[in-house]
């Protein structure tokens, strides 16, 4: 997700963000690791204007014009959805594991990935 005050739902190409200031996460966070990898893979060098520990803070600061940020869509606070621009090159695997003899609640949890709309490169592969 690219979040900034002039965005608005259209897809963001990473090259469009070249030279933009970035609101990033703590250096040891998984989210900053994802951002570093995405930027490295696309030959971009970020200018960091702030580091935060919470996704909601990153979105709010980006919304106020401090810079752009990259967060999971599920982390966008209510009222900020209109600022989101999907970034097509970012995806992470989702793995769900349950114990042997799982009960109905655990089994129901495994149904959630089947209901998700996955990108073309993603797939759902149950393992027995």
Give the overall pLDDT as a whole number: 79
Figure out the total of helices.
3
Instruction: Supply the CATH class of the domain at 2-85.
Output: Alpha Beta
In total, the number of strands is: 4
CATH superfamily of the domain at 2-85: Periplasmic binding protein-like II
Domain LysR substrate-binding: 9-112
Organism: Pseudonocardia aurantiaca
InterPro entries: HTH-type_LysR_regulators, LysR_subst-bd
Protein name: LysR family transcriptional regulator substrate-binding protein
Could you characterize the architecture of this molecule?
The protein is an alpha+beta fold. The protein has a domain at 2-85: D-Maltodextrin-Binding Protein, domain 2 (3-Layer(aba) Sandwich), CATH 3.40.190.10. It is 26% helix and 12% strand. It has 3 helices and 4 strands; from the N terminus they run E-E-H-E-H-E-H. The strands form 2 sheets. A two-stranded antiparallel sheet has the order 1-4. A two-stranded parallel ribbon has the order 2-3. Helix 1 (30-41) links the parallel strand 2 and strand 3 (47-52). 18% of the residues are buried.
Summarize the structure.
InterPro entries: HTH-type_LysR_regulators, LysR_subst-bd. The chain is an alpha+beta fold. It is built from three helices and four strands.
List keywords for this structure.
128 residues; D-Maltodextrin-Binding Protein, domain 2; two-stranded parallel sheet; 26% helix; disordered N terminus
Indicate the topology:
Elements: E1 2-3, E2 21-25, H1 30-41, E3 47-52, H2 55-63, E4 84-85, H3 104-115
Parallel strand pairs: 2-3
Antiparallel strand pairs: 1-4
């Amino acid at each position: 997700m690219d979040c900034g005050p002039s965005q608005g739902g259209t897809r963001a190409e990473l090259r469009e963000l070249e030279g933009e200031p970035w609101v990033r996460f703590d250096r040891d966070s998984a989210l900053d690791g994802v951002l570093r990898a995405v930027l490295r893979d696309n030959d971009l060098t970020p200018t960091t204007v702030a580091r935060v520990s919470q996704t909601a803070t990153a979105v709010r600061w980006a919304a106020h014009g401090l810079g752009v940020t990259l967060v999971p869509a599920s982390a966008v606070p209510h009222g900020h959805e209109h600022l989101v621009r999907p970034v097509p090159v970012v995806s992470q695997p989702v793995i769900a594991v349950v114990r042997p003899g799982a009960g109905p609640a655990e089994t129901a949890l495994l149904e959630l990935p089947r209901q998700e709309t996955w990108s073309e490169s993603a797939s759902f592969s149950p393992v027995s």
